[in-house]
Write a structure and sequence with these properties.
This protein is α+β, with helices and mostly antiparallel strands. It folds into 2 domains: about 140 residues, no CATH class; about 250 residues, no CATH class. The chain has 14 helices and 15 strands. It is globular, with a radius of gyration of 23 Å. This is Adenylate cyclase. Keywords: Membrane, Transmembrane, Transmembrane helix.
Length: about 425
């Protein structure tokens, strides 16, 4: 790709050399700030759209083009099923807003990304030699943005946020598991005993729309080779290798179904492999599992604590985006399951900026972690521990909790909270 200055000489770029230099310096400042430097996706997206705009190619900034050039997607990829570009744009937009809200950045060149557009706008404070007003994208870019197919993105959350079933057990068919687990838990699961404990569920419980329960599809996990079927594939193999969920995730689903049933809350059950971004826009969502659930991994990325993989190993860890996380918050999925003594997980509740709907995440690094997280939410005594030392007004804020559970004979013990964040 030619340099920005070389491309600008042969393009209709509305920016002169001094302006381009100032914008590039400002972008460097942004990318080295704590809001961007710990991510790979957000800097890559911001750098691409800024450079393309500076060289006068803003009319080409469409969702599909960005997906191909920045995230390596195929030209024929389905943008309605893969919302990576939209999710990234929303998060970059939010982080730009957070950056410029800080008083020390008020007099810097502003780079903005307006809702519904992938074309950045630039503005210069009065003290800098450049444009006095935001740079307006070309008519071609505006037309391209209007014609580009993408889901409208909601307004930013007023409060900032910073972005499994990894331990694979035997898979069972969703339908069979639902018949077993729902029959047991719907009839025998009592409602939460303490009114205060229900505050954890408040945004989910009070929403008028049906709740989407999204389970990890083990058969579509990136940790397993994809099952290849032909016209000669037997019914048995098709049943064995498709639409599989972990038993512990199914137990967690049963507990959730019982709790929601006690509140007369309607819900739908979805597999992660068959869930679209549009599905998550219809109402609240509860995401179960982490490593095997790509939606969980995407929603966790900008939160204070996320789940990451250590290099090319099979070790997954809970890491912090704000401060040093305990290096012990990890498990090696390649170790013998009988040797596993600890499991870790995350429970997070937030009002998502992309869907504008409440999202509850229960994500264990191993199979027992997710089930322990459900117990943390549904057991009244354990749920009250979430409120211990919580700040005033916490029920109306986003929250994220890291917990540990002891594993004995492949069974989990009571979860113990290790860290928590409210924002």
């Amino acid at each position: 790709m030619p340099s920005i200055d070389e491309a600008a000489k042969h393009s209709s770029s509305p920016f002169n050399e001094a302006e381009r230099e100032q914008v590039m310096e400002q972008m460097t400042a942004l990318l080295t700030s704590p809001l961007f430097r710990q991510s790979r996706r957000y800097p890559a997206f911001l750098r691409y759209v800024v450079e393309e705009t500076l060289r006068g190619a803003d009319g080409e900034l469409k969702e599909r083009t960005i997906g191909m050039e920045v995230f390596g997607r195929q030209p024929s990829y389905d943008t309605s099923l893969d919302p990576t570009v939209r999710l990234t744009a929303a998060e970059v937009r939010k982080r730009l807003t957070q950056y410029y809200k800080q008083p020390e950045h008020a007099d810097e060149v502003h780079i903005e990304l307006h809702p519904g557009s992938y074309v950045p706008a630039f503005s210069w404070p009065s003290g800098l030699p450049g444009n006095e007003t935001p740079a307006v994208s070309s008519a071609a870019a505006q037309k391209a943005a209007a014609e580009d197919h993408h889901v409208a993105e909601p307004a930013l959350s007023p409060a900032p946020r910073t972005r499994n079933a990894g331990y694979l057990g035997g898979g069972l068919l969703v339908g069979v598991l639902l018949l077993v687990t729902l029959a047991v838990f719907v009839w025998h699961r009592p409602a939460l005993g303490a009114a205060n404990a229900a505050d954890v569920w408040a945004p989910i419980r009070t929403s008028p729309n049906p709740i989407a329960l999204v389970l990890a599809d083990v058969s579509k996990s990136a940790l397993l080779p994809a099952a290849r079927e032909t016209a000669n594939t037997s019914v048995f193999v098709h049943i064995r290798d498709n639409r599989l969920v972990d038993f512990n995730d199914s137990v967690a689903l049963g507990k959730l179904a019982g709790t929601l049933g006690s509140w007369n809350r309607p819900y739908t059950t979805l597999l992660s492999s068959e869930t679209s971004f549009e599905d998550l826009q219809h109402g609240p969502a509860i995401l179960l599992g982490a490593v095997d659930n790509p939606w969980t991994m995407r929603f966790l990325e900008p939160l204070p604590y996320s789940v990451t993989r250590r290099g090319e190993s099979m070790t997954y860890a809970i890491t912090s985006n704000r401060k040093q996380a305990d290096p012990a918050w990890s498990i090696d999925l390649a170790q013998p399951f009988a040797s596993l003594q600890q499991d870790y997980g995350v429970v997070a509740r937030e009002m998502d900026t992309m869907t504008a709907k409440p999202v509850l995440i229960v994500a264990g690094l191993g199979q027992n972690g997710t089930t322990a997280g459900i117990q943390l939410l549904t057991d009244p005594a354990l749920a009250r521990s979430i409120m211990a030392n919580a700040p005033k007004g916490w029920a109306g804020r986003n929250l994220e909790i890291v917990f540990r559970t002891q594993i004995i004979d492949d069974r989990f013990g009571p979860p113990v909270i290790l860290a928590r964040e409210y924002w």
